[in-house]
Amino acid sequence: MEAYVLGVPARSVDDLDPEGLPAAAAAALLEEPELPSGDSAFTAVGSHEEITRSLKTLWREWQDEAAGGWGPPSERTYISYHFTHGMRPNCKGYAQARSAADELVASWEDRVLAVAKGADPAPKRLVTVHLTEVVEDPSHRYE
Predict the structure, then answer these.
(1) How many structural domains are present in the chain?
(2) Does residue 138 sit within a domain?
(3) What share of residues in the chain are helix, strand, coil (percent, to 5)?
(4) Which of 40, 58, 104, 141 suits 78 as a labelling partner, its CA being 20 to 30 A distant?
């Protein structure tokens, strides 16, 4: 997890969810799962190729959000909406596709939380940083 934390941009401590950080680190390391492109619940999305492409996009969006977000999984429930974006809600099969996408995203969340809980807890370390005082250099002119 240390390598993960060092690789992300600096964030405010207020944005940090202590339980979300291990999940974010775990999500960053997950490999793409086998995607259920043959599931009949997704037929409203289009052809097999379109379903596969949409599922891969959904996975990447979820993983990017899960790995980049330090919040709890409940903050990522909206991602499954992307899967059916562009479909009319009254379209035949829309509800089934939405429901199946919700279940799929929930299974990824469950998987990442299980991985995060199964990880060896790292000892907590307090870090103190001393910053040097910034002194303006009169020889440089900033415009």
Answers:
(1) 1
(2) no
(3) 55, 0, 45
(4) 40
